[in-house]
Amino acid sequence: RGMRVAVVGAGVSGLTATKCCLDEGLEPTCFEQSQDIGGVWRYTEHVEAGRPSLYPSVISNTSKEMSAFSDFPFPEDFPVFLPNAQLLDYLQRFAEHFSLREHIKLGTTVVSIRKHPDFATTGQWNVVTEAGGKQTSHVFDAVMVCSGNFSEPSLPLHCFPGIERFQGQYFHSRQYKHPDTFQGKRVLVVGMGNSGVDIAVEASRVAAKVTISTTRGSWLLSRVFEHGYPWDMVLNTRLMNLIKTNLPRPLLWWFMNYKLNQRFNHENYGLQPEKRYFLPVLNDDLPSYILTGRITIKPGVKEFKDNSVVFHNCPEEEPIDIVVFCTGYNVSFPFLEESVIRVENKHASLYKYVFPTHLQKPTLAVLGLIKPIGGIMPVAEMQARWVSRVFKGRGANVSPPVSQNAAQTGHVLFGLTFDEILKTEWLVYLDTLASFIGAKPSVLGLLCTDPWLALTIFFGPCSPYQYRLRGPGRWEGARQAILTQWDRVLKPTRTRVPAASSSSFPSLLTVMGFLLLLAAVIFAF
């Protein structure tokens, strides 16, 4: 019999984990507590305990070409940024196409995962699940934890003096579904993550007044980026990455400042972030809503009064009726013992954000906990490809350092707070894991054999298909998918005039790129 792997959760990470196990000849069983697959992308009208909660208007922050699983492009007629229902549809198609459903047990909750008594030699785990009120125990050879981090809301009320005397209504963004709650009300949104800004924008269409309170400010990106291209297809390229990783810090800071302030000056809009590098927020409407007075940006909350709020450095009180706390989520693994994954002040101690650093055997992995500036799906998939090979014993050279000193230097403390300073360049992280399994594309190698592809890979967007050109899990369609990516981007929007060839963008890039390369070479010498 093959190696038996338990996969916890059937969202984005759980589905790709199940598929990667099958690709490596392992035997996955995926446990999903709710009644269907899709995780955070499956909208339900009611908030369910222990499950992520979505509001109906959620749209993906990353474009379809940069969010696809690497051997399964989105249908060409799907919009470039996906409403949640279409993203769920894609996940269902993915599950059908790779026959994943027969390996998924729905309505089954994982109650506990404990080391098997002879873990030190076998690396096995005792897994207890519950379905229909009945508990079952199993023994698995390995475990992939794909339960996500959007289930346990973080609501630190003790940080908001006076909240107990506030007469109005307040709730965590997880409870939010429809804007009609805000009809004619004065609304305060605390926190400026993606949900906070989304909710503020929606509220401002029906509310009397909307204020966003943010301690740190934030960079704001729009889905519609330079020349109307998707932001991630412009920013997440190998050329851009080369610039970002090789520029001296002050120069990089100037470059990012310049790039991000091109659309509007963040300082003038009260948004300039205090910390130097952290996750930008994605929203297309906020600047114009600030300009038209629908939304006001204020500093952090000092205290609440009966019917009002006082902000830091602002003497006057602001009357409010409803507060939405967009204060993020706690990471929790209720089914695991503390000793397996230590979560301290929202940090989990994980090698490459995946393997707990102090297990004797690398037979448990956590997927999809990382918050990169880029699509999470390709990242979860790459983690799953690596992990399934480690489980199988190929790639043993990357097992996490066990000895304490090695662990001190080798492991990374990963901050799971929204505003944690960016620890990981999306592309660098993907390349690192890809090189562990031999799937990293070689631009120089391709320059001799397939120059057009090499240039597209280097100057164009780093779409996930690049990681299927070689190595284990190589996909025949990868080259074609890369060369036609712009066609799939333009297909859903060029609906009035016949679509011409879309190669003008890459060729422009190529010219620019060569000039930049030339400059880089000159400056290097």
Give a written overview of the molecule.
The structure is a single chain. The strands form seven sheets. Strands 3-2-1-7-23 form a five-stranded parallel β-sheet, covered by helices on one side. The radius of gyration is 24 Å and the shape is globular. Helices cover 31% and strands 18% of the residues. It is α/β, with parallel strands linked by helices. The protein folds into two domains: 4-151 and 330-432, FAD/NAD(P)-binding domain (3-Layer(bba) Sandwich), CATH 3.50.50; 155-222 and 263-327, FAD/NAD(P)-binding domain, CATH 3.50.50.
Short summary of the structure?
Its cofactor is FAD. It is built from 17 helices and 24 strands.
> Per DSSP, what share of the residues sits in E-state strands of 2 or more residues?
15-25%
Ranges where pLDDT stays below 50 over 5 or more residues in a row are 396-423
Cα-based radius of gyration, to the nearest Å = 24 Å
> What would you call the shape?
globular
The overall number of domains is: 2
- What is the makeup of the main sheet? 5 strands, parallel
| Mean pLDDT across all amino acids | 88
Any idea of the CATH topology of the largest domain? FAD/NAD(P)-binding domain
Report the CATH architecture of the largest domain. Answer: 3-Layer(bba) Sandwich
Count of distinct strands: 24
Q: What is the CA–CA distance across the termini?
A: 58 Å
> Which strand order spans the largest sheet, edge to edge or round the barrel?
3-2-1-7-23
CATH homology group of the largest domain: FAD/NAD(P)-binding domain
| Number of alpha- plus pi-helical segments | 17
What is the percent of helical residues? 25-40%
Structural class: alpha/beta
CATH class of the largest domain: Alpha Beta
